[in-house]
Amino acid sequence: MDRNLALDFVRATEAAAISSAYWMGKGNEKAADQAAVEAMRKSFSIIDMDGTIVIGEGERDEAPMLFIGEKVGTGRNTKLDIAVDPLEGTTITARGDPNAMSVFAAAPSGCLLNAPDTYMDKIAVGPECVGTVDLDASVEENLKAVAEKLDKPIDEVTVIILDRDRHKEMIEKIRKCGSRIKLIRDGDIAGALAPAIEDSGVDILMGIGGAPEGVIAAVALKCLGGEIQGRLNFRNEEEKARARKMGITDFDKKLAMNELVKSDEAMFAATGVTDGTILKGVQFLSGGAKTHSIVMRAKTKTVRFIEARHKFEHFPDY
After folding, report:
1. What is the maximum span of the chain, computed from C-alpha positions, in angstroms?
2. Long-range pairs for 24-27 at CB < 8 Å and ≥24 separation?
3. Of 61, 187, 239, 274, which residue is least crowded by CB atoms under 10 Å?
4. Assign residue 284 a region: left if phi > 0, alpha if psi is -120 to 50, beta otherwise?
5. 64-68 long-range contacts, Cβ below 8 Å, gap at least 24?
6. Distance CA 216, CA 202 (A)
C-alpha cells in the first residue's frame, strides 16, 4: 500500500471529526453521526484508491452511504478493504463525554474480516503482553499473566471494560482478583487501543463489544505491536444468517489477530472528536479548528501524532 495515502486517510478522519464536533453536547446523536458520515464520504471521493467498504454504516438498505460493499475512491491505485467508523461514540458526542473519535482502517483487498454487525468477545493487550493472554482462559489466569509479564502486583493491573449489565459477573471476578477497573460508557475501539498506548494507564481490555469495532481495533493493534483475540457472539439467528452471507461458517472460532487482519500492509487513522485517553478533541478557533490525530502503518510500526490547524475558507479542500 502506498504510504503516501496515510495523509489522505487522516484528512478524511479530520473532516468527519470537525463536522461531528459541532454537535458535541447537544443531545442529537443522529445529527452528529450523519455529519461525520457525509464529511468522510466526501473526502473519500478524491483519494486515489480502489476501495470497498467491508465495515461501515451497515447494509445498503440501512445506510445511504458508507454501506458494506460500497466502492469508494477514484478507482485508481491499490484495491483496498476499507473499515470505517465515522463517529465512534455517537452517544459520547451527544453527551459531551470523553473518547469519541473518527476512525479509519485499510488493508489490501480480502485482508480484513468482513464482520457482521453483532457482538464479539474480546481480550486485548499491549506489546509487552503479546502471547500471555488467552480468550479461553479465566479472568484470574489472564490477570495473573499480565501482572507477571509487567512485573507488577495483580492489584496494580488496570482493566478497561464497557460499563454494561452483561459484564456484571466479569467485573465481580476482576474485583475479586483485586485488580483496578476503568469503566467506559462507550468507545470500544479506543478501549482496545488503550493497553498499547504508553501512559494510558490501562493494561488490558476485557469483555464484549462490537464485532466491526474489533476488526478496526485489530488493525490499530497490529500497527502498535499489541494483540487482540475475539470470538463472534451472536444475539439471534438473523445475525448468524448475515454472517453466513459474508462467508463465516465457524461461529465458535476464536479469531487471532492474523485472522481479523491478514496483512501487514495495513493502515489506521483516527482523529479525536472529544478529549480522550489517546487523542484530544476538536477545538474551534476563530475562523477554523484544531484537530489531533494518529496515523499508523503495520508494516513499519510507525506511529505519528498529527496536530493540525484548519482554516474554514479552505475546508475540506486543504
Report:
1. 56
2. 24/93, 24/94, 24/96, 24/100, 24/273, 24/274, 24/281, 24/282, 25/93, 25/94, 25/95, 25/96, 26/94, 27/94, 27/95
3. 61
4. beta
5. 65/37, 65/38, 65/41, 66/37, 66/40, 66/41, 68/114
6. 19
Residue 53 is predicted with a pLDDT of 96
**61 burial via Cβ count (<10 Å: 0-12, 13-18, 19+):** exposed
Instruction: Read off the C-alpha cell for 158.
Output: 488496570
Dist. CA 74–CA 200, nearest whole Å: 38
Q: Would strands 288-297 and 283-285 be described as parallel, antiparallel, or unpaired?
A: antiparallel
- Check residue 315 and give its pLDDT: 61
Strand ranges, E, within 1-117: 50-55, 71-72, 79-88, 101-108
Q: How far apart are the first and last CA of the chain?
A: 23
Domains defined along the chain, listed by start: 5-110+266-311 (3.30.540.10), 119-260 (3.40.190.90)
Q: How far apart are CA 221 and CA 219, in angstroms?
A: 6
Question: Residue 215: what pLDDT?
Answer: 96
Average pLDDT per 10 consecutive residues for the chain, totaling 318 residues:
85 97 97 96 94 87 83 92 96 94 96 91 98 98 98 98 97 98 92 92 97 96 97 92 88 95 96 93 95 96 95 66
pTM score: 0.93
Q: What are phi and psi of 308, to 5 degrees?
A: -125, 145
